[in-house]
Prior knowledge:
alpha/beta, 22 helices, 6-stranded antiparallel barrel
Amino acid sequence: xxxxxxxxxxxxxxxxxxxxxxxxxxxxxxxxxxxxxxxxxxxxxxxxxxxxxxxxxxxxxxxxxxxxxxxxxxxxxxxxxxxxxxxxxxxxxxxxxxxxxxxxxxxxxxxxxxxxxxxxxxxxxxxxxxxxxxxxxxxxxxxxxxxxxxxxxxxxxxxxxxxxxxxxxxxxxxxxxxxxxxxxxxxxxxxxxxxxxxxxxxxxxxxxxxxxxxxxxxxxxxxxxxxxxxxxxxxxxxxxxxxxxxxxxxxxxxxxxxxxxxxxxxxxxxxxxxxxxxxxxxxxxxxxxxxxxxxxxxxxxxxxxxxxxxxxxxxxxxxxxxxxxxxxxxxxxxxxxxxxxxxxxxxxxxxxxxxxxxxxxxxxxxxxxxxxxxxxxxxxxxxxxxxxxxxxxxxxxxxxxxxxxxxxxxxxxxxxxxxxxxxxxxxxxxxxxxxxxxxxxxxxxxxxxxxxxxxxxxxxxxxxxxxxxxxxxxxxxxxxxxxxxxxxxxxxxxxxxxxxxxxxxxxxxxxxxxxxxxxxxxxxxxxxxxxxxxxxxxxxxxxxxxxxxxxxxxxxxxxxxxxxxxxxxxxxxxxxxxxxxxxxxxxxxxxxxxxxxxxxxxxxxxxxxxxxxxxxxxxxxxxxxxxxxxxxxxxxxxxxxxxxxxxxxx
Length: 650
């Protein structure tokens, strides 16, 4: 069904046994770890630091502009560009592990400290450190992204636990079902439920009934815009009502926070493990650390934190080494005391929660040691490595996986590890093993105009998706203050750069870009804004990193576009905008399309759009691929066809 993927020798469609899985995966995790380490080191030690910055794995010329004490005694340092402007394009994300170094330090030199990205803004990056780095904060600095070895260690541990889990442990009966050795079972009793959410559609209600009837495994297949998270939240509420203790996970922090936000109004006893990536008040309130601070020790803990804040301030101002050493010693003692007071409270908070929410890596945190769950729910399961899923699955006797194996797969650094099967997800494996027996697909979508949806529905979902009446015919010019114009009237637009002399180029990192096409994409965005569309309602998606950088540079020269988002397809997964412009980049005489032919990538790109989808491409190049040719023909038939020459580009 997803023709963009090569067939896989290590995983055939026949069931893979537990022993086969263990023997295949163990070396692949090492392979992936090595690939990530070499990517971060080679980019950090590439020809020069400027190149490393262009690759996005290093940010140069930073100054430390603020220090505060975060939860659990972490030191939060904020960095901005020494020039005070927007940070360059980079690949840093919340929770990435980074090291801090003097700006001009030798490659491979010792770091001033290692931390985790805590907050990201256009012009600043905040990093959480266990301790404030010793020296050098008053000089220009740089941050380097490094491989997170903890994740790989935890994955290896999960495999060891999995090999033992068959004999004992909460998942002892679940494991054989997930490896096809035992059939899935369903409750004999008819399940009925009173919805917490009164707006559920028939396909969501059917999926929830099936989920509640499952005794071991259920797959919720949620195509774009069909309310997958809404359905997951209803399942959690129904299970809590039944008295279940639930572990809810996702591959990314953003997806976990999304579930926390949606559960919050229902006053469920929940706890969010780990640093919330986006510090929204409701997510922060649910964080384990915050709940611990509200516990009996909170007054004392607050006093300690106030004291630490004063000391941190002194530390940044003082130049005297001996004074610094004394302050640091005192800070360490205080942090240790604070952690000890909170450790006991952690156990209580987790014990009293109905729902514990965390990333998959966080599921193997020592804070959950010895805690078992009635149900493990994994959202975004089709984007998670199977090995990562096992970190959570081993803690429960039932599981529900939600996702869409026809959207983007997990990101894998090692080409060889991917070829040997690391990228085959558990969701995909179970879908081919059991199919409809354990799966339900949501079929009503609430995001896109039906013309945008129909292409995706026909091409990937057997024409089963229907647009909800509230969105089926919505137009850009229905938005407040947007005028009806030749730019806002069409739902689908194809801007063809063929014959306009806009060939692709390679940048020094061998990523592909197309200057002419970027200019056309920006020109269309400007037309939309001139017709009253907010720039924050527009997104430009392109599969190539070099094109992202180029488009962002062009955006910085246009004041009226500064709120417009520009990102790769991966960066937009799970998101939406009123208008999406897709820059395909490829334009060459050999008619090579590269990884544009990956169906899942294009599915995600097109389905981010709510009211208008505009594709900018060289139709002669992209139509060389049969799948892309059908996409071009669909846009030509149902949308507006323009040549780039109409934008003043010949």
